[in-house]
Amino acid sequence: MNDELEQIRQRAEQDLTAASDSQALAAWYAQYLGRKGEVTSLTRRLGALPPEERPAFGQAVNALKTALQESFDRRQEEVRRAELTQRLEAEAVDVTLPGRAPDIGTLHPVTQMIREVTDIFAHLGFQTVEGPEVEDAYYAFDALNIPKEHPARDVWDTIFIQSASREIVLRPHTSPMQIRTMEQSTPPVRVVVPGRCYRYEALDATHEWHFHQIEGLAVDERITMSDLKGVLAEFARQIFGRERKVRFRCDYFPFVEPGVDFAIDCMVCKGVGCRVCKGTGWIEILGAGMVHPNLLINVGYDPDRYTGFAFGMGVERLVMLKYGVQDIRAFYQGDVRFLAQFNRAAA
Amino acid sequence: MKVPVRWLKELVPNDLPPAEIAQRLTMAGLEAEGISEIGATWDRVYVGVVERVEPHPNADRLVLATVNAGEHHLTVVTGAPNIREGQKVPLALTGARLIDGYSDEFRMITLKPSTIRGVRSEGMVCSEKELGLSDEHEGILVLDPDAPVGVPLRDYLGESVIEFEITPNLVHAFSMVGIARELGALIDAPVLLPELADLEAVPRDPGLVTVEAPDLCPRYVGVVIENVRVEPSPEWLQRRLASAGVRPISNIVDITNYVMLEWGQPLHAFDRRFLHEGRIVVRRARPGERIETLDHVDRELTPDMLVIADADRAVAIAGVMGGLDSEIRDDTTTILLEAANFNMLNIRHTARAQRLRTEASSRFERGLDPNLVWTATQRAVALILQLNPEARVTVLADAYAEPRYPKTVVMPRAEIPRLLGIDYPDEVVLDVLSRLELQPEIRDVDGVRSVVVQVPTYRSDINIPADVVEEVARIVGYESLPETLPWGQTPHVTRDPMRRLIADTQDLLVAAGMTEIITYPMVSDDDLRALAPGAEAAPDRYGFFARPELDLVTARNPLRSEWTMMRPTLLPAWLKNVAENLKHSPGVAVFETGRVYLPRGVDELPDERPTLCLGFAGERHAADLYHRARPVDYFDVKGVVDALLPRLGAVDIVVRPITHPSLHPGRAAEITVKRQPVGIMGEVHPVVAEQFGIPAGQRVAVAEIDLKALFNTGLSDVELRPVSRYQPVEQDFAVVVDEAVPADAVEAALRAGAGPLATSVRLFDIYRGPAIDAGKKSLAYRVTLSAPDRELSENEIQRIRGRIERQLARQVSGTLRG
Ligand SMILES: [Zn+2]
Fold it and tell me: How far apart are CA A343 and CA A111, in angstroms?
């Protein structure tokens, strides 16, 4: 009897070792431990035994059953693990194949630069405001201390809009918002004004008839030109690098006095002189100055009490300098192969 | 303005290298645009004297010239017809770099020893062209008799010329003397003014000059000089004019040009023989009056133009150009020299109307100092007498009704620190202003400690205290300013909600895979017509916007015919961009957030409305490992709009079909938010697409949304609802409705039936076919139900299903299938 059990055990263990996949394991289980399996059928023979042998036999069969079940569990775990390993091996991919990338677009470089600049000035307390592009000549010129006879009002520089009795222009600069802003508020005033501007100008690699400017204006008691220098230096260093040196050069704009050109040392040659800076070591990036008292008078501010500074920069020029864009016309030709390159996430 | 450095250094003696002079002046407001070097390449070229000229033994047209240049003494072969013994000439030795005088192109050659017709030549005497001075190559350049023999030509003739850009305010610096004054002030060096003639003793005859239009001619000086001899100017004068970019002509004309360069005051000389009655009348032109100017153009004048006339007719267009009749000729002996001041605006208008900008007009246009007229006269007379010692000044007239005097400007002493944020010691302020010849004094004016300056009439740019501050700052140097930040409280910065809406829109669309474009905001009439091809009249809407009754915002002087008016819609530029990008990209996904300009009335500024145009063309998604490309369609653009608008805070968004001239008749929709129309979307009508150069067969889907209208609907912020902890229940409904029933009506009925427990209603299939009646469609929805506070019971779910069924039957005559 026990021999028979031992034989079954040995055979079962051998068969179990031979079973190498789930299917063979299932077959093995059915053959030995299933409802009609050999071990299960042994218990059916219990009734045929004399009562005194039954307990021993029962125990022996149960022991066999338990042993085989343990072996089976162990083997099954081995096989599962092997099968999983096999499956995972089979699923290996070329990890260098392209992924399923979502489409992500690009903001226009001019939009990006406007955001960057207005963000910088927001931290310095400058509110961003916008104004009309189709503008009254009073705001575009007269109120800015550019009287009728000033050369900038020539038909050669400005695009005029058809009108009956009022002179209306496409603003040639964002400066009209200096006047509009001051008219609508009382000091302290700190604003930056991004927007489109227009000039009657033939197009070439460095001239556009349509471009963007960012105007800045601060008016308060005790605003000085040193403040202007400090604010512009902070701006320039955030855009072009902390190590930038800055420079004021005397220049003329009718709506400021004194007026200056603001330059940074050339980031390409570090001031030695190169093609980008035309050998001077400096790159002029904007015009600025102290708000001309006539403007303050025009908006009803007391020029003896208040002073202010103003500046205006060309956005395209900043992008061109920062990224080495050679031709300003590229911004508005709208070729996505150009635009999509400005795809770095904002720092 | 071209400034020869030798000339400048004659006026302000100094040792600064040209680059530093340029730099110093640039920082002070006179921007140097470049420095050109005359003679930079003149190595091995010397001043020589021609000792002997002999015939060439083997050639009639060549000569042998023996030239002594100090250390170098040699015989050269030359064909120059003008070579004479005793002349000073430029002698080039072998190895010199010269311009090929016989080539029409600019070509540098290196001089080599050569044998010409059997005679060895070790050098060359040079023409102006060979030295790069001019195109003259017929004869050699003959130098002044006092040219120093043996000196390198570069040291004698070489010149650095600085080109300055003069801003409109710096009229006073638009001359050699003016720039010398600037430089003198900057480097604290005296200015040596040129010699002037004393004209006090010259008899005056008011009848010589009659000014009939004193409003246009504040001053006119006429001087009669007899016994002049017209001949070429001496070499120094010719050279100086040439280095400043002016072509020498003859002594009298050259002197007028020279004085203009030196002092900034244009002059003109008439041959008095041709002045009827020998006198000058300054008056407005008569209607139809004509004049042939020095450039041989016959010009018609109008009464708003000022002319210089004799007793009968115009002999010059005042301040612009002289007439041909009275010009100086070789046999002129008596001249009338004009120095005058004209109204700047009038000169500008005349020059523009005549399309004639001259050196003279460009100076008068800036507004000159009337007192300069007299100085320039004195200087010109001095030069004429220097070159023509036998000439006699016989009579003059000075019509100067309202003399201009120096003005006083009072600047509070505190204005300097108030504007600059830094102060300078009194001594520095006084020193700088003295160098600028402003005669500063510090004294109390009305109890305020002030700097009082006397502004010479040539400094028309100094009028207010801030002008004086600038003078101090620019001469001391702006590098003296520290970098500070504004004093006081930083104003509170808020984000403009409209700007924020635009930025959010841009960011969402970029996240949705679209690229931002910025296009020109001007369009042409053709562009707008192309939006509604075949329409007999103008279409009743441009893009989203209804056609205004008023004329569009139109340029008076458009730059090009394609940019004549401010756009009333973003569509044309967007379509053009798509057409361009389709040339190289199979699929295009671009948007623009720009303004449209809707007229509000004549003489009114237009309504500038921030507007969004977005869309797709060609293939949607490039074909790759995972997707097949497919043509874009309406649902690409609607999908983006569906995702975008709620994220911008729009609620109650409804889409309904419309007909629109630019859109596919079966695939066009209007978008409303809270019942307000905010935009349109659809597939672009193939005929419209074709008008804009989009190849046939390329589908284009676009939306134009009025962001201002959207904003005005009142955009809402996030409204949080609690996330239920209980398992949601999904229920499917196959709703059979008539074909004509729009999906959003079915969805509305489902939502009405499901009530607030429906957290999502999603259409996942549309069936048409034998299983349902013809003319019907079956829409399969999955409705997700969830209560915040409980598990939904089977009973509750059945009640909801019942309500949904009733709502479907009532609202869309729908039945549930299967
Ligand atoms: Zn550089």
Answer: 12
d(CA B640, CA B663): 18
SS (H, E, C) B727-772: CCEEEEEEEEEECCCCHHHHHHHHHHHHHHHEEEEEEEEEECCCCC
Burial (Cβ within 10 Å: 0-12, 13-18, ≥19) of residue A142 = middle
Tell me B302's DSSP state.
-
| Cβ–Cβ below 8 Å for B605 and A136 | yes
CA neighbor of B267 nearest in space, from B377, B367, B366: B377
SS3 state of residue A87 = helix
From residue B447, alpha-carbon distances to A302, B443, B444, B451 in Å are 20, 9, 5, 12
> Backbone phi, then psi, for B92, in 5-degree steps?
-100, 135
Residue A286 near residue A262 (C-beta atoms within 8 A): yes
User: What 3-state class would DSSP assign to B396?
Assistant: strand
Write down the pLDDT at residue B547: 82
Taking the model in full, what pTM does it have? 0.88
CB contact under 8 A, B553 and A161: yes
- At B718, is the secondary structure helix, strand, or coil? coil
User: Which of A297, A218, A226, A179 shows the shortest CA–CA distance to B489?
Assistant: A218
Q: In whole angstroms, what separates CA A238 from the centre of its chain?
A: 17
Count CA atoms within 13 Å of residue B245 on its CB side.
13
Catalytic residue IDs of A: 156, 173, 199, 213, 256, 310
Can you name the residues that pair with B77 across neighbouring β-strands?
B64
Q: Could A128 and B496 be called an inter-chain contact, meaning their C-beta atoms sit closer than 8 Å?
A: yes
Tokens standing for residue B632: 């874009």
- The span from the CA of B804 to the CA of B785, in Å, is 12
Q: Which of B556, B574, B644, B692 should be substituted to probe chain A, the one whose Cβ sees the most A Cβ atoms within 10 Å?
A: B556
Which distant-in-sequence residues (6+ apart) come within 8 Å of B768 by Cβ? B776, B777, B778
The Cα–Cα gap between B75 and B62 comes to 13
- Amino acid at site B681: M
* Amino acid (one-letter) located at A64: L
Beta-carbon pairs below 8 A across chains A and B = 243
ipTM of the complex: 0.90
Q: Where does the pLDDT of residue B671 fall: very low under 50, low under 70, confident under 90, or very high at 90 and above?
A: very high
3-state secondary structure of B204: strand
**Contact across the interface for A231 and B419, Cβ inside 8 Å:** no
A9: CB partners within 8 A, 6+ apart: A64, A67, A68
| Mean pLDDT, range A102-109, rounded to an integer | 94
Residue B454 is given by DSSP the state E
- Measuring CA to CA, how many Å separate B217 from each of B101, B170, B327, B341? 48, 22, 22, 6
Which of A139, A146, A152 has the alpha carbon at shortest distance from A178?
Answer: A139
Long-range contacts from B716-723, C-beta under 8 angstroms, 24+ separation:
B716/B649, B716/B651, B717/B649, B721/B788, B722/B788
Residue of A158, A250, A256 for testing the chain B interface, max B β-carbons within 10 Å: A250
The beta strands (E) that lie in A199-291 are given as 210-220, 246-250, 256-265, 282-291
Residues B737-791: tens digit of each pLDDT: 999 999 999 999 999 999 999 999 999 999 999 999 999 999 999 999 999 889 9
Q: Which of A284-293, B67-76, B228-237, B771-780 has the lowest mean pLDDT?
A: B67-76
The single residue listed with the structure tokens 């300097």 is B416
Q: Is B108 helix (H, G, I), strand (E, B) or coil?
A: strand
